[in-house]
Design a protein that fits this description.
The protein has about 500 residues and is mostly beta strands. The relative contact order is 0.09.
């Protein structure tokens, strides 16, 4: 950044940490980089947006940032350079009045400039607007001994993001702040596209970003660029252009008429956000006019799995899509499992087998479960003294047989499934010490409780099971045969 008030100020700014220039790519078009604080979880009462005057910059080139805020707010602007250094650009030592009125504005203010860094790469800018001052962004001291008018916030963008988001949420009332970010590429290599069309005044989109109207010329990153021209809603041209470094590429386009189709999109439940070919188009139910051809339809709603389908529409065609959304499983605050989760209980003991109970959890078609089979021996002594001896007496079951298993369900058709599984059952047993009682001793009446000596042993048994499961909607009913438990009847619910 450069100070224009004096030569001394200019030197200071040239030595300062490079500003992380703003790109014309918005947060909706590019994955969020490290250091960028996410938008608030709940919709804020105020909104802020920012943009830059260009999408491609040379090193040490001036950057002008435009912003718009919906309410009176305190603004904070920081940059992240190619090395991950985070710098507070506004407020700064030259311009510390960061409370602004609703409407549009520009940064930097009068008397100084923002410059891109010396190194090539992608740089980022983020602006935060808040109804109250944010203590996490303390401003630089008004001290001429400072080497830079801008405050260094961090050198680790990921740690900065986590710490700053936490501090803002802890010190700021809910819904009282908003944020927006942009990025841009700094490069010494550029190509130039000179674009014209018939008819003229068509909107120009380069790599999806609006650039201007025909005829016009633009500096772009060398390589293959996606170019689209639109005039109104009926005329269009698009194609790929190879832009060579330090060369001018002339593009002359003859706009062609666009064919449209109509699509009515419904969902159960309604209120799902519609995205067609990556563009947000409202909420269900909604009738939408789209360009004919291959389209990608995506529906999103909180608490439900994403629904997606690719379809082909012919010119003039009218079609209706009805999507049944599947609920997503919430595992905790802010954590969702994007897959059907089922919880089931079951019981055995039919046809004379020992009684048993079990439970099963399934995600998609994979199953994990466990069971208890009540196999206690009726002859088991009331009191046992467990000892580490190798006894050779009677062996009796002690407690239920415990089993863990896993399995998989195969869809036979519609709501009918074949479920199979295998597991391991463990039975704890008591091997009693052999008694040696003669007739004289048999009439002895003890005055205290008698404990039988026994050795604790375990028996392991593999288990297999298989059967049919019916799941017409969210409830399920299954009947399986288990190698240890016999016939098992189960019930389940899909969340």
């Amino acid at each position: 950044m450069t100070k224009k008030l004096s030569a001394y100020g200019l030197i200071l700014l040239l030595l300062a940490v490079p500003l992380f220039p703003v790109t014309a790519l918005s947060q909706d078009q590019e994955p969020k980089p490290q250091g960028i604080i996410p938008e608030p979880g709940s919709k804020p009462d105020l909104e802020v947006t920012i943009s830059t005057n260009k999408s491609l910059y040379q090193p040490r080139e001036e950057v002008v940032i435009s912003y718009e805020v919906s309410q009176t707010a305190y603004l904070y602007l920081y940059s992240i350079d190619t090395e991950g250094k985070v710098t507070l650009l506004f407020p700064n030592r030259y311009d510390n009045k960061n409370k602004v009125n609703p409407g549009k504005g520009e940064l930097p203010g009068r008397g100084y400039s923002f410059l891109t860094g010396k190194e090539e790469g992608r740089e980022y800018l983020q602006m935060i607007a808040s109804k109250v001052e944010l203590p996490v962004f303390s401003t630089p001291e008004s001290d001429d001994s400072q080497s830079s008018p801008f405050l260094n916030l961090a050198t680790n963008p990921k740690e900065f993001e986590t710490t700053t988001e936490k501090q803002i949420n802890e010190t700021t009332p809910p819904r009282s702040w908003d944020t927006d970010w942009v990025s841009m590429e700094v490069t010494r290599k550029t190509a130039r596209l000179s674009i014209s069309s018939t008819p003229t005044n068509a909107r120009i989109y380069i790599d999806g970003d609006f650039a201007g109207t025909t005829p016009d010329a633009f500096d772009v990153r060398p390589g293959q660029r996606d170019l689209k021209l639109l005039l109104g809603t009926d005329l269009k041209w698009e194609g790929k252009v190879n832009a060579e470094a330090n060369q001018v590429k002339n593009v002359t386009a003859e706009l062609e008429r666009v064919n449209y189709s109509s699509i009515l999109i419904k969902s159960n439940p309604s209120g799902a956000e519609i995205t067609i070919n990556g563009n947000y188009r409202g909420e269900t139910p909604r009738r939408i006019s789209v360009e004919s051809g291959e389209i990608d339809v995506k529906l999103e709603k909180n608490g439900y799995r994403i629904w997606r389908e690719e379809i082909r529409l012919f010119p003039g065609e009218t079609r209706t899509i009805e999507a049944g959304l599947e609920s997503a499983t919430e595992l905790g605050p802010g954590l969702e499992l994007d897959a059907p989760l089922r919880l089931g209980v079951n019981a055995g003991g039919i046809w004379g087998s020992p009684a048993s109970v079990g439970t099963a959890l399934s995600i998609n078609n994979w199953i994990i479960g466990g069971s208890l089979r009540f196999t206690d021996s009726s002859e088991l002594p009331e009191n046992i003294n467990w000892r580490k001896e190798n006894y050779r007496g009677e062996v009796l079951n002690y407690g239920p047989e415990t089993e863990v298993y896993s399995g998989y369900r195969f869809n036979l058709f519609d709501w009918l499934y074949l479920e199979v599984g295998a597991g391991l059952a463990v039975q704890m047993r008591a091997q009693l010490e052999q008694l040696n009682i003669n007739s004289d001793q048999s009439t002895f009446e003890p005055l205290t409780d008698v404990f039988r000596n026994a050795q604790q042993i375990y028996e392991f048994h593999p288990s297999l099971q298989g059967g049919l499961l019916l799941e017409p909607k969210d409830f399920s009913l299954k009947l399986t045969y288990h190698s240890r438990r016999g016939p098992v009847l189960g019930f389940g619910y899909r969340f």
